[in-house]
Amino acid sequence: MPSSKVTCRWRTWVEIDREALRHNIHVAKKRAPHAGFIAVLKANAYGHGMEEVAKTLAPHVSFFAVASCEEGVRLQRVVAKVPIMLLSAALPCEYPIIAKKKMIPTISSLEEAQAFAAVAPAGAPINVKIDTGMGRLGIPSAMAAQVVNEIGRLKITIQSFSTHLPSADANIKSTRAQLASFEKLLPVLQKIAPEAAVHALNSAGALRFAKQSDKLIRIGLMLYGISPIPSLQKLLQPVLTWKAHVALIRKISKGSTIGYGKIFTAPRDLTVAVLPVGYADGYPWQLSNKRVYVLINGHRCPLLGRVTMDQIGVDISRAGKVSVGDEVVLLGKQGTQEISASWLAEKAGTIAWHLFTGITERVQRCYLGPVRKTRISYFS
Q1: Residue ranges of the chain assigned to CATH 3.20.20.10
Q2: Helix (H, G, I), strand (E, B) or coil at 288
Q3: pLDDT tens digit string along 301-313?
Q4: What angle do CA 26, 237, 302 make, to 5 degrees?
C-alpha cells in the first residue's frame, strides 16, 4: 500500500488527481470524437477546486461553464483564454459585468436578451436555452421560433442554442423523445442563427447518447470520475480522495456509549480512533449510525455513533497496529478497498453532486501530478 505524499500538517484534506481528470475528458472524447466539450466548473468544480481543475482541463475543452457571474470572474483570473458560459439566469445588475468580461450569458426570454443587449457591445455572444422538458430555464419549445426571431433582430449574437436533459440517467424513452423534439426545432432556429452551435447532452447524455452528439457537449460529474449511470462507472477514474489523520486512540469498554445522543453502545471492548473531521468539513451528519466505515491500513473501520461538527470515532479493533498520525481514507481507495462517492452519498440519503460540493473550505485541497499545458491522448 503506497504511503501518502502529504505531510501531517493537515488534519483532513482531499487529493485531486490531475491524471484522472485528463483520463475522464478523454473518455468523453472517445465516445464523441467529433464534438467539442464544455467543462462544467460551477460550485468550485464540484468541490474539487475550480482554479486548479481549470488549469488542468484548459488544453482539452472548448468552453468552461459556471453558475454565476461571480464564479466566472474568479475563473477568468486564472484561465483567460477559454470562453466562459454562465449556465444560470443572471441578475440584471450583472449584465454590465458579463458584457465587460466577455462572458456568455444563458438567455431564456426576449426580456433578458433585450436587457443584455442594452448594455453589451455589438456582437456580444449569448447562449439561448430552449425548454424541452426540464421546466426550469429556457424558452418554451412552442414559443421558441417566435422569440428567437425577435432575439435575432438585436445587436447581440446567438453563439449557441441549448437545452437540458432532466432524466438521461434513468429514463431513456423520455430522453429520446426530448432530443427528437429539440432536433425537430433546430432547423427553424438555425435559419435565424445559422452559425450557432448546439449543445444538449450532459454527463449522462454523453455516456448514453453520444452518437446523437451535437457540436458541443456539456460534462460535469463524469469529469470528476463519477458516472450517473452505474453500469458505466468502470470507464471513469474517480478524481478525489478524501483523507484525514488519526488524532487520538482510546480504549472503550463493553457497554460504554459514544457521542451525542448515546445512540451507540459498545457491544464489546473496543479500540477507537478519533478522527478530526465532521459535518463542518462536509462529512455528512446523516451518516450517523448508518453502518458506514473508513479505511485504515486497508481495513474497513466502522463509524461509531453520531457524526459531530469536528470529530468522528471509528472502531480500529481489527485494523492491526494503528498510531496517532496514521492516514485514514474517508472517500476513495486504500489497498484493495474502496469507498465510492456514490455509495457514501447513498448511505447519507443524498447524491454524489451534493457530497462533493459539501466539502468545505476547512478541508485542504492537494493536487497530484503536473498541469501539462499541451493536449495529450489516452487512446490510440
Answers
A1: 32-223
A2: coil
A3: 999 999 999 999 9
A4: 170
Closest CA to 85 of 104, 70, 72, 102: 104
Distances (CA, A) of 327 to 155, 163, 367: 58, 44, 17
Q: How many residues does the chain have?
A: 380
Q: How many CB atoms lie within 10 A of CB 260?
A: 12
Rg (CA), the chain: 24
If one looks up domain 240-368 in CATH, what number appears? 2.40.37.10
Kindly report, residue by residue over 162-220, the tens digit of the pLDDT: 999 988 888 889 989 999 999 999 999 999 999 999 999 999 999 988 776 668 999 99
Q: Which residues are catalytic?
A: 42, 260
* Cell numbers linked to 238: 474517480
CATH superfamily of 32-223: Alanine racemase (3.20.20.10)
- Residue 91 phi, psi (nearest 5): -80, 150
Please write the tens of the pLDDT for every residue from 34-69. 899 999 999 999 999 999 999 999 999 999 999 999
- pTM for the full predicted model: 0.92
For CATH 2.40.37.10, the residue range(s) in the chain are 240-368
